[in-house]
Amino acid sequence: MSSAPELLDRPRILVVGGGYVGLYVAMKLQKKVRARGGIVTVVDPLPYMTYQPFLPEVSAGSIEPRHAIVSHRMHLKHSELVSGRVTSIDNAKKVATVAPVGGGESFEIPYDDVVLAAGAITRTFPIPGLNEAGIGLKTIEEAVAIRDKVLERIETASLMPQGEERTQALTFVVVGGGFAGIEAISEMEDMIRRAVKLNERVDQSEIRIVLVEAMGRIMPEVTQSQAEWVVEHLRSRGVEVLLNTSLANAEDRNIELISMPDKAPAGSFKADTLLWTAGVQANPVNRATDFPVDERGRVKVNASLEIADGDTVIEHAWAAGDVAAVPDLSGGGLPDGTCVPNAQHAVRQAKRLAKNLYAKSYGVGSMKQYKHKSLGAVAGFGLYKGVANIMGLPLKGFLAWLAHRGYHGLAMPTFERKFRVIAIWFWNLVLGRDTTPLYDLQTPSRAFYVAATPKRPAVSLPFVAESSMLDAAANRAANERVDQAAEATPGQDTKTADAAKEPQAAK
């Protein structure tokens, strides 16, 4: 274990994760704690917080990627920021082990209070081929990759002859019928329709968009009648909605489906684009601590957001958000009596946690239990379309879309980010959705390599569509093409040939 970098020698509140909970806890405490001689230290591998409800709109070009994130450096100026990943916590010794993002040996950070706010990661199942063919929608990078992938496939397919390869390129699959999946497939359909309209070589009738949901209904957060309306709405837009159906295999981009009641085959087809939105799970860092966790991997907490094992409270240890099993005192949560893991709860829990921590550790204010009755749910389905259930009032269509925009416009953290998002919404209404794809984001030095390689043979290294999906097979194939090009060039030395692989290796 290496020595820690130069960190401030002050009583420390260590915040593990800079998402919803971590950002708000740090913003609420940083000035107060610093004024009393302490420091709030935020450890996260990313330099920003991602507003995840905006990811479907980012993936469809409705919101610019950087507008959907909040910079830690810009808004946590009075906190101590560490770019790293907490790999373990020994609360008995009050230390956390951190692996720096840039590589190198891990180091330890001591603390007085610790706040677990590492959030959730995508939950997957052992489905053959899913890891290579699929992509999630949990990060801003994934959202950008989806946008560019979908648009690139349409552009590439426009030059293909009619046949299986063209059909495969124009087939798009989303697995998961929760809020994320429904919003993603709706925004995707809107973007695809606009992109096809601008491309005279592709007809809308060639597009195939498929939603796969294992349960018998979608969107459990809304009423049954609203869920049925959403299904009919999607089908009216040409989306195939397959309920009680699950993905069984995705090897070689061959999508094999099964019927959930009897596990019988339910059809198969080829698709280049596979988006997985079938749930999330608590960050596995929980299991690398000496804190109590439940069967779902969430840290156990009491209603005051203190980590607790039954009635035994672990002093100066806190958790909230997706990473924690927070009791839902309103009675409207999950079947196990805990809060639904969503942004609405995470933000409010963070604010309550900050007040409770300050009251207990600094004696200012009083501790209270977290209790929040959900205001409802809103979802956008592209421009002017949506569904909502606000305090028992069901809405759909244009009014629901307005409610969705209004709620998330206000809920976006910081005034600076609210202004950017609302501004881009306004200009989209005037100018339309931006359907410009960006290629080679995963291999940005490709163009420079081509220009800088001496005696380069007259071959091209085309954009690898799968590269934006981090496809390992595509990476290997691209490297092989570079090797072949190098071998075909007399006089090119080994160093130059090896350098050809650097753009791919950087991935």
Description:
The protein contains 15 helices and 25 strands. The protein has helices spanning 20-35, 55-59, 72-75, 130-133, 140-157, 164-169, 179-197, 224-236, 343-362, 398-411, 415-431, 446-452, 472-487, 494-499, 502-505, and strands at 12-16, 39-44, 48-50, 69-71, 80-90, 95-100, 107-110, 113-116, 120-122, 134-135, 171-175, 208-212, 239-242, 245-249, 254-259, 265-270, 273-276, 280-282, 299-300, 306-309, 312-319, 324-325, 376-380, 386-390, 393-396. The strands form 7 sheets. Strands 7-6-5-2-1-8-21-20 form an 8-stranded mixed β-sheet. Strands 10-17-11-12-13 form a 5-stranded parallel β-sheet. A 3-stranded antiparallel β-sheet has the order 14-15-16. A hairpin with a 6-residue loop joins strand 6 and strand 7. Helix 1 packs parallel to helix 9 (343-362) and helix 5 (140-157) runs parallel beside helix 7.
Based on the model shown, name its key terms.
507 residues; alpha/beta; five-stranded parallel β-sheet; 25 strands; 33% helix
How do the strands and helices of this protein lay out in sequence?
Elements lengths: L11 E5 L3 H16 L3 E6 L3 E3 L4 H5 L9 E3 H4 L4 E11 L4 E6 L6 E4 L2 E4 L3 E3 L7 H4 E2 L4 H18 L6 H6 L1 E5 L3 H19 L10 E5 L11 H13 L2 E4 L2 E5 L4 E6 L5 E6 L2 E4 L3 E3 L16 E2 L5 E4 L2 E8 L4 E2 L17 H20 L13 E5 L5 E5 L2 E4 L1 H14 L3 H17 L14 H7 L19 H16 L6 H6 L2 H4 L2
Parallel strand pairs: 1-2, 1-8, 2-5, 8-21, 10-17, 11-12, 11-17, 12-13, 19-22
Antiparallel strand pairs: 3-4, 5-6, 6-7, 9-18, 14-15, 15-16, 20-21, 23-24, 24-25
